[in-house]
Design goal:
Elements: H1 3-15, H2 24-31, H3 33-57, H4 60-83, H5 88-98, H6 103-111
Helix pairs in contact: 3-4
The structure holds phosphoribosyl ATP.
């Protein structure tokens, strides 16, 4: 697993037992799944708005803001996975398995009836 993701994954696992008063991650777990999902939705919307801004401005500032919003989204999806005892490494393994497989080929293979023809 990528170094940064691995470190963050370990910190997130530790924070599940932390004091919600001193840890943002612990406070999310304490508030529960609905709050975590609300944050994921909010951050996804912020990514979309920042992407539109970045495309409009075409500026470095817009792209920098977009990177920050994507980081917020990735972070909150990692908290969601941790809350549901899903392994972030499994997501990376899934993407790794897909390397080299065209999305269009995968889609066509999916729509073929069982047994071919
Ligand atoms: N990567 C992050 C990270 N990214 C974003 N955030 C927080 O996510 C929150 C969401 O941003 P918003 O602007 O939506 O926040 P808000 O309006 O205050 O949130 P709400 O009150 O609406 O829920 C902010 O408080 C950010 O600081 C993060 N908080 C923590 N981490 C990592 O998690 C580790 C553990 O953090 P703690 O649990 O706080 O120790 C940290 O060391 C970091 O590595």
């Amino acid at each position: 697993m990528n170094d940064v993701l691995q470190q963050l994954d370990q910190i997130l696992a530790q924070r599940r037992q932390a004091d919600p008063a001193s840890s943002y991650v612990a406070s999310l777990h304490h508030k529960g799944l609905n709050k975590i999902l609300e944050k994921v939705g909010e951050e996804a919307t912020e990514v979309i708005l920042a992407a539109k801004d970045a495309a409009g401005e075409g500026s470095d500032g817009g792209r920098e803001a977009l990177v920050g919003e994507v980081a917020d989204l990735w972070f909150h999806t990692l908290v969601m996975l941790s809350h549901l005892d899903c392994d972030a490494a499994a997501v990376l393994a899934c993407l790794q398995q897909r390397l080299g497989l065209s999305g269009l080929e995968e889609k066509n293979a999916r729509s073929e009836p069982a047994g071919g023809h």
